[in-house]
Amino acid sequence: MAGTRGGQTRALILKHLIDRPYNANQLAESMDMDYKTIRHHLDVLIKNGVITMEGDKYGAMYFISKAMETNLDEFNQIWEKVDKQSKSK
Q1: Rounded CA gap, 53 and 30, in Å?
Q2: Contact by Cβ (8 Å): 41, 33
């Protein structure tokens, strides 16, 4: 994730979802990003089994997946790298 295009945005989405579930609009507002951009990254995360979605359309809520929950330590290590990269720019 750290080395992929869009990885920093996806990591930030995950940091939000670790704290609590969000819908796409809430994430877009919280992250001050375009709604369509957030939806794209959510789709990528779902496709890769990192998050899950409950509900449909605009009311759908996003959660970290069970697999992600078991790998939170690894994610936090990746997050530290991503966070350091963003601060050094």
Answers
A1: 18
A2: no
Q: Residue 59 CA to chain centroid, in angstroms?
A: 17
Q: What is the pLDDT of residue 65?
A: 95
* Phi and psi, residue 14, nearest 5°: -60, -40
Query: Which tens digit of pLDDT belongs to each residue from 24-77?
Result: 999 999 999 999 999 999 999 999 999 999 998 778 999 999 999 998 888 888
The whole domain housing 66 covers 7-82
Per the structure block, which two tokens stand in for 20? 């609590």
Q: How confident is the model at residue 79 (pLDDT cuts 50, 70, 90)?
A: confident
| CATH assignment at residue 14 | 1.10.10.10
Total number of domains constituting the chain: 1
- CA-CA-CA-CA dihedral for 53, 56, 61, 62, to nearest 10: 20
